[in-house]
Amino acid sequence: LAHTEQPNARAIALHPGKPIVAVCHHVGNLLVMDWSTQRVICSDEHAVGTAPACFHPDGVRLAYLGKQGRIRILDLETGRSTPFTDAPHAAKDALAWHPSGRYLVVGLAD
Q1: Cα(60)–Cα(4) distance, rounded to whole angstroms?
Q2: Closest C-alpha to 61, from 91, 22, 4
Q3: Beta bridge partners of 86
């Protein structure tokens, strides 16, 4: 298993085909790392530490909840994160890609 120096991982997502894990820490950052080598592939400080993250079926993109309620998409090839949508009025409790990769489903709390 992977180990990071930052404590209190709150959300974890596994890559669909490689030894890669995305970890959201309670301090509000996202680390994407290769667990076989412990190498950090990329990181993003836009994350909300207690929120979910999920890999796209192609394994190139990662959806996660950013600050101010914005869902963000991280491109693992470039390391760039871009806003996907806003919905600050509701907490996001779950994220899941449809197996086709065409749809991102968001679970909202009341």
Answers
A1: 22
A2: 22
A3: 70
